[in-house]
Amino acid sequence: MTGAFIVLEGGDGVGKSTQAAALVEWLTARGTPHVHTRQPGGTPLGASLRSLVLDPATGDVAPRAEALIYAADKAQHLMQVVEPALAEGLVVVCDRYVDSMIAYQGAGRALDVAEVEQVADWATAGRRPELTILLDAAPGDAVAQIAEKDRLEGAGDEFHRRVRAHFLHLAEAAPERYLVVDARLPITEVTSAITARVEQLLDGD
């Protein structure tokens, strides 16, 4: 396979950034051209939106407004980063994507999940990753490890329980497109599980 869109998802504090970096290191070692990016962020507009929506100083943000901010980030990021990279045959490794918007702004904020998913689909023109790696862990322990919490990290235990449950629901609905990994495992074991699945994807096994 030339070009693939791979996304790492999961709750806060489960090690997505660590595993994304490990995957990028593995891709580099095997000589696979790639792009490492994230949402929100990954573009100048996205960086501004990320700062705005995650900063506790922003204060209360209406759940629908929050969802639309994330949708704007995704639309810009897809147009500016993801699609051009895929068109060049690169592997795109992205920290968060549409599932986070559906789980956080939909289930977490108790909005109509179907409506949020519809907005996300519109913003991204229905683009889905070839592989979503879901790092799963109970939210209490994971979030507790974060010293300085942003607006979403500090949203409370019940919020994060809803988020986790919906991530798992999304994975169960499309198992062929997901790898669910227990984030409590040793870091090296998590990395091995991820690289094995990505190798299958890229080599067509």
TrEMBL record:
CDD domains linked to this entry: TMPK
A single Gene Ontology CC term: cytosol
Residues at which ATP binds: G10, G11, D12, G13, V14, G15, K16, S17
Catalysed reactions, semicolon-separated: dTMP + ATP = dTDP + ADP
EC class (word): transferase
One Pfam short name: Thymidylate_kin
UniProt keyword rRNA processing, yes or no: no
UniProt cross-references to SUPFAM superfamilies, sorted A to Z: P-loop containing nucleoside triphosphate hydrolases
EC code(s) of this entry: 2.7.4.9
NCBIfam families: DTMP_kinase (TIGR00041)
HAMAP family: Thymidylate_kinase
Family designation: Belongs to the thymidylate kinase family.
Protein name: Thymidylate kinase
Classification of source organism: Bacteria, Bacillati, Actinomycetota, Actinomycetes, Propionibacteriales
Gene: tmk
